[in-house]
Amino acid sequence: MKTIIKGLILAHVLSLSAWAQQGGNPIIKDKFTADPAALVDGDKVYLYAGHDEAPERQQHYVMNEWLCYSTSDMVHWTAHPSPLSVKDFAWAKADAWASQVTKRGDKYYWYVTVEHGTIPGKAIGVAVSDSPTGPFKDARGSALITNNMTTETKIFWDDIDPSVFIDDDGQAYLFWGNTVCYYAKLKPNMIELDGPIMKVNLSTPFTEAPWIHKRKGWYYLSYSTEFPEKTVYAMSKSINGPWQHKGILNELAGNCNTNHHAIIDFKGKSYFIYHNGALAADAASFHRSVCVDRLYYNKDGSMKRIVMTTEGVK
Ligand code: FUB
Question: Is the pTM of this model over 0.90?
């Protein structure tokens, strides 16, 4: 019996590695990866992801570090040593949840979700590096956002999922939230708020995972709605709104409750980077995998619904 099980496991591993050589989704096949964010820098794309480390069958998050991968063609991904973990924030105690990296000048800033050590609830920290692959270090020595700074809801996990955006005039913004979508200006140093925390008014329920981007004069705010989650989006001519709801961008992932994404343009094509439960045998909501598919815009600037594929991008 033991020999048969070993044989089956080996066959599964071999079929996975053969698949890995051919590309396709999920793009990372040797680890469970979640909450993708991506940065285009020069002729490369850097993928920053959470690491789902829960033991098989466990139905809760175990996430201690963030992972980094790079590519020149969106098909072949190089793994880099983990450049950041919860331990790099002395004031945090757990939970390397969703994050995003941006570049300003010659520095890279990584905004992350963690559980605060002394202020009850989730918090957002920021790390800095001279390189997109790190090493990163805590840029402040304290949280940028803590649960007691946001009072729109009583939940302890509304300060999660940072998305950072630098507008054409150089003004940087941080968007984040759970059940309430918050945003605030960042100072040019990228590690302090520059004004009050504001609330985004959206006509569709906001669950979490905002991603803010701009294209041809339109601002796009895409985010997860309901639970299990779909990704929807809104468009505006101003970063301060009003936001016009534009419908579903990505459907339910099927075997995964969450639906976290990033949107980039690279070498003339647009991409939607997301996670689902494609690699997991079970308990997929806590054993997620990052995938990439093409994103297409309509002539009026609206986005076509994503077609999630097994083949991925070529
Ligand atoms: O991975 C932990 C949390 O699940 C993220 O912060 C959310 O966006 C959801 O994906």
Answer: yes
